[in-house]
Amino acid sequence: MKISLNFTNLRQYYFQAVSNSSWANEGYLVCLNIDEDPDFINELQRLSNYFGIGIIKLNTESVDESEVVFPARNKENIDWDTVNRLAEDSPDFSLFISNLTEDIKLSKIKSNYDKVFDEQALNGYIKEKKIF
Q1: Which residues, at least 6 apart from 18, have a Cβ–Cβ distance to it below 8 Å?
Q2: What is d(CA 112, CA 98) in angstroms, rounded to the nearest whole number?
Q3: Whole-model pTM above 0.90?
Q4: Bridge partners, residue 57, by sequence
């Protein structure tokens, strides 16, 4: 998630999102402010079409009203080499993958995952943590 996205920081932020989502089935770059220059929007669309990273403009007043500017492309294959490397480097990620694998084998959710907030709870959490 980034505060602002424009020509100055586009390459750095976009390719950070590409790198961070290399193991995932889809990835998004979430921004509070996106430059609305038509040339910039065209470049965002070109990058999104080529690399498959979606763009979300976050609405700080109502997260549920955030806008998917460009949807992410769903990858059919997961990069397991990257997943394994991340699991080796991060005990939290390793535990997540282990729990997920076990839950898939059992065909039910046994593990504890992050809580999914409704809009009111999410807005309260955002204000409490001073995210915006």
Answers
A1: 27, 51, 53
A2: 12
A3: no
A4: 31, 67
